[in-house]
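Troubleshooting log. The previous structure file for this entry was overwritten by mistake, so regenerating from the original sequence record. Sequence copied from the archived sheet and checked twice against the printout by T.R.
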Amino acid sequence: MVENAATRRFLVLDASAWIHASESWLQRAALEKDLQLCTVPDVLHEVRDEAARKRLEWLLGLKSGGADDARALTVSEPSPKAVACVERAARETGDLGFLSAADVNLIALAIDLGHPEKPSEPVTSGNAVEETCGAGSAPSTRTASDSFDIHG
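Regenerated output below.
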């Protein structure tokens, strides 16, 4: 589990971040001083495109721009409590059948990393993830293409 720090923002990324984001966006995000890029192990297995894999491997080896010498991308499992919370919310919205295990774990990790003053934000391209995050017990979400200029 990645420890939360009140001064750090977290961006929880699904596979679409490596598939659709430009290299320049990933480089800027990875080196932003108070931003920690995060994902779950399930996502690593979803990235099959050769160019996307290279971007992912580059990020896994890169140090962040922060003073704490952390990796630019951390890979963590969410807590069982957060996973249960996400599954409950997805069941209530009727989206559980549309969410992959990676989707559930990404939302749960965002909950774990969230801080009342600086919430984490899952970045995804999945509609079921957005629906579940709108259910109230899960964090709000941004889609990679709509909320961040990932192409430039």
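Residues 116-121, 135-152 have pLDDT under 50 and may be disordered. Archived copy saved in two places this time.
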